[in-house]
Design goal:
Elements lengths: L1 H15 L22 E2 L5 E2 L9 E6 L5 H17 L4 E7 L11 H8 L18 E3 L4 H6 L3 E2 L1 E5 L5 E5 L14 H10 L14 E2 L4
Parallel strand pairs: 3-4, 4-5
Antiparallel strand pairs: 1-2, 3-7, 6-9, 7-8
Length: 210
C-alpha cells in the first residue's frame, strides 16, 4: 500500500510539471473534435457527442475519482455548468482511467462520487454532479483527443471544432486562482471572439493507461 501511494504521488507531480505522456494523437486548434458514442454514464445510459447537438458549446473534461487535482476542481466544474447552462453550454466529464490498476476509478465508485456521497475523505456529502459523468472503458476517446492528464479540458465550438484546450485555471487551490482560462474561453466564444489564450498546459495526474 505504501509503495502504491508513493506511485500516486509521483503521478501527480509528473502531471503538475506537465510531463504527462500523450498516448494518442495531439489535436490542433480548429481541428474537428473526435466523435464518440456509447460511453456509459453514471445514469446507466449511453452518451454520445451527438446527444448535445443543441448546445452552442461543449466542454469535454477528462477527469477521474482518485486524482487530488481532479477532486480539487469538482466544485468548480459543478459551478461552471450551473453558470453556463442557460447559455447553452454543456459539460461532459469522461473518466479514462483503468480501474484494474486504480480501483478508486471503478464505475461503481464513479456513481458514488457523482452522487456526492460521503466516501471516506472524498466529497463528504457535497453537491451532486450536474453534468454527465461517463466512462471511457476502452480509453479510445482519451487517445483520440490526446488527453494526457486528469483534468484535461477541450472546448468544442458550434461546429464541434477544438476552440480551447488545456487547464481549467492556473491553480488547483481555488483561493489562489488568478487566471480563469476555461471561463474566459467560454465567454469569448459566446461573444463570437477567439479565446486568448486558446491553449494552456493542463495541470493534473497522468492518465492511468491499461
Amino acid at each position: 500500500m505504501k509503495r502504491r501511494r508513493i506511485g500516486l504521488v509521483m503521478l501527480v507531480l509528473l502531471g503538475l510539471l506537465g510531463s504527462g505522456t500523450v498516448v494518442g494523437a495531439e489535436l490542433e486548434l480548429g481541428q474537428a473534435a473526435p466523435d464518440f458514442a456509447g460511453l456509459m454514464g453514471v445514469d446507466d445510459r449511453p452518451h454520445a457527442l451527438a446527444d448535445y447537438e443543441q448546445a452552442k458549446l461543449v466542454v469535454v473534461v477528462f477527469t477521474c475519482n482518485h486524482c487530488p487535482v481532479s477532486q480539487a476542481y469538482e466544485d468548480r466544474l459543478i459551478a461552471l455548468q450551473k453558470a453556463y447552462e442557460d447559455k447553452q453550454v454543456q459539460l461532459i466529464a469522461i473518466n479514462p482511467n483503468c480501474p484494474e490498476i486504480e480501483p478508486e476509478d471503478s464505475f461503481a465508485n464513479m456513481k458514488e462520487r457523482a452522487a456526492g456521497r460521503d466516501l471516506g475523505n472524498w466529497r463528504q456529502n457535497k453537491e451532486p454532479f450536474h453534468f454527465p459523468y461517463v466512462v471511457d472503458a476502452t480509453q479510445e476517446v482519451a487517445k483520440a483527443y490526446g488527453a494526457a492528464v486528469t483534468p484535461h479540458v477541450f472546448v468544442l465550438d458550434g461546429e464541434r471544432k477544438i476552440a480551447y484546450m488545456g487547464s481549467i485555471d492556473n491553480n488547483m487551490n481555488a483561493m489562489a486562482v488568478r487566471n480563469h482560462f476555461l471561463r474566459d474561453a467560454l465567454d469569448a466564444l459566446l461573444a463570437g471572439e477567439t479565446p486568448e489564450p486558446a491553449s494552456t498546459r493542463p495541470l493534473g495526474c497522468m492518465i492511468i493507461w491499461k
